[in-house]
Amino acid sequence: xxxxxxxxxxxxxxxxxxxxxxxxxxxxxxxxxxxxxxxxxxxxxxxxxxxxxxxxxxxxxxxxxxxxxxxxxxxxx
Length: 77
Description:
Blueprint: H1 2-11, H2 31-45, H3 62-71
Helix pairs in contact: 1-2
């Protein structure tokens, strides 16, 4: 999970992602940020995330992002 937090903090350093339960609702991530997160996740975990998985519901919190990484073959620590 730390890798995911690092990615989020690099993309939007002005937010404390550990304090939010819903990144979308709280305005931490928008659609452009999600595309950037997907790209970074693919690089960090050596995976390709299915385009059908790139929906806001899959990026509301770190647990949801971990599930997307796992579903697409990654192993988040």
